[in-house]
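User: What would this chain look like folded?
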Amino acid sequence: MQVLTRVAEVRSHLDAVRAAGRSVGVVPTMGALHRGHASLVDRAAAECDEVVVTVFVNPLQFAAGEDLEAYPRDLDGDVSLAADHGAAVVFAPTEDEMYPDGRGAVLTQVAVPALSERFEGASRPTHFSGVCTVVAKLFNVVGPSRAYFGEKDFQQLAVVSRMVRDLSFPVDVVGCPTVREPDGLAMSSRNVYLSAEERRQSVVLSAALADAVEAFGAGVREGAALEQVMADRVATAPAGVLDYAVVVDARTLEPRGRADEHSRLLVAVAFGATRLLDNASVLGPIGGARG
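Assistant: Here's the prediction, encoded as structure tokens.
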């Protein structure tokens, strides 16, 4: 395992890997790695000859008042997990390395407005431009590769995939299934912010998705009806505040008045200052117990 902190080091190393005829996989993260991230590293290691995990808490995707300073950081633990699951390199740059002139002096922004303005983008207007900008930088550093992202952040996966397609990055984006706790909660680094009672109630997200999948399986096709099914379940969690529960086209993220097999269910719920996201195909399945 190598821990590299400089852009030039990573480029030189991975250029040599490819020159030797070996393929590269990259797992971009903000650290605080958990079993969900481990599944991405496992997939990358199974499909690529050399895997690099990036660990960088990107300030550009946090708005004022969000949890940038409090975001969990554990580089030693991240390196250990990455090594245990087959990564050869952890790229852990400093903020100065990624943004040499300072975060406020980044004049170039990358954005995919048509996919970014709804849902998470409506709640966090600067978020996806920050994500796209840093991911574009990371792809430029890593070079030709396969990049692994979790489906838990489904809108992010769609946005990054479209950015890669539109800008002709030499990167294959691979979406990987959401990893869940035994009770169904989607794994997220932000779950550590939940109080014990919020954590107990947080299973409402996966339960809401499961209810809608069940309703779709029973023949309900109206998007508004499926959205109401999800909203009704979220309402059973007193600590949760529903942001959105929507049915969209999985390919375009356009809202669907009538669901079909290509539809995706998206839900976001706030527990205090912590926003949780989850999603599923209308066809399911959704792992974990239902509350």
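The longest strand covers residues 240-249. If you want, I can go into more detail on any region.
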